[in-house]
Amino acid sequence: MGVETGTGVTVKLKPREEDRLLGGHAWVFSNEIESVEGPAEPGAAAIAVDARGVPLGIGFYHPNSLIAWRLVSRRVVPIDAAFIRERLARALKYRERQYPGETSYRLCFGESDGLPGLVADRYGDVVVLQVLSAGIERRLDLVAQALTELVGCRGIYLKNDHPTRSLEGLPPESRVLQGDVPPRVTIEEAGLRYLTPLTEGQKTGFYFDQRDNRARLAPYFKGRHVMDLYCYTGAFALNAARHGAAKVLGLDSSAPAVELARANARLNGLAAEFDEGDAEEVLRAFAEARQPFEPDFILLDPPSFVPSKRHLMKALRAYVRLNLSAMRVLPRGGLLATSTCSHHVEREAFLGMLREAAGRSEKSFRLLELGGQAKDHPVLLAMPETEYLHFALLEAV
């Protein structure tokens, strides 16, 4: 059967282990596999079959990974240039529907777009890639060819510094894959321009995943004294300034991030201050004594505290401490916009963390808004691993 589609590899599952896959999930774990036939090299195209030999789809197989098989298509078809182009064209069309007229967004979000392990961020005519599976790594030239045809790329940059690459036996690397890639580009989102680092900086350049939440907060900023912690490029802070905040202060522990945020404030002609500072230390200082700046709107968008599931409880305690510190600073009527960005923290755990922090603050909070990652980071209904960002806006009452 593998030979009929040119793969030569068949992955046979143990009895009943196909249930999750049939329910819409996209992974098969190594302990769910009965046998593998054929030359099973990392990233090889392989057909998965159930215990009776009924085909379940075609995907990427890895003999040394816990996620041993990643679904690419439920139809057994060749994963060739035409297939990859069609998948990326579909992903592009979806983003164009969600954000008409925009040219900067997450163009591909791995399993959610049917290309497991491929993250592609578009910045106009430049694309930044992060490759997290051996299957995509083996087909990188086909991905680059399709992107060049679809968006007319002048340059593609590989930012393969994510630690999960090691789980697939892939080394870290950052380099220009093709064409011309400037170190920085200027993008536009919701009427604001952002100078965005491509070859340096965090993640793949810009936090597109908070796009919808930035828009969600716009009506709440007017007249507020806003403190944006973990500000990075200053996107939340600059939205606050644009939408009528009386005063805006952005803080980040990274000196280059602070300089970037200041540059973005100048670029947009907005009055916002940015300084270097550790979020927890700053909140502690505000709680212990009156400061010249007294915020009544605090934004928390910290990095992930959960590198793996075994760190979850420790991370939740850290999130409680951080949010508790912010809640203690806020006056009655003050607002807290807060997020977590790890798929290990499920929505109910996120809300439970906020309830615990609120209880310990000896204040009451009402939930004004509840959100998640932007629509260019689509969530598969049957695959909770694709949902990683949780967002809430709370008001002290």
Structure notes:
The chain has 397 residues and is of the alpha/beta class. It has three domains: 3-73, PUA domain (Archaeosine Trna-guanine Transglycosylase, Chain: A, domain 4, Roll), CATH 2.30.130; 81-181, RNA methyltransferase domain (HRMD) like (Transcription Regulator spoIIAA, 2-Layer Sandwich); 186-396, Vaccinia Virus protein VP39 (Rossmann fold). Helices cover 28% and strands 29% of the residues. It has helices at residues 19-22, 81-98, 134-137, 140-151, 211-217, 235-242, 255-268, 279-288, 312-329, 347-361; strands at 10-13, 27-29, 33-37, 44-49, 55-61, 67-73, 104-109, 118-123, 126-131, 155-160, 173-179, 184-189, 192-197, 225-229, 247-252, 273-276, 297-300, 335-341, 365-372, 389-396. A seven-stranded mixed sheet has the order 16-15-14-17-18-20-19, sandwiched between helices. A six-stranded mixed sheet has the order 2-6-5-4-1-3. Strands 7-8-9-10-11 form a five-stranded mixed sheet. The longest helix has 18 residues, at 81-98. 45% of the residues are buried. The model has no long low-confidence stretch (mean pLDDT 94).
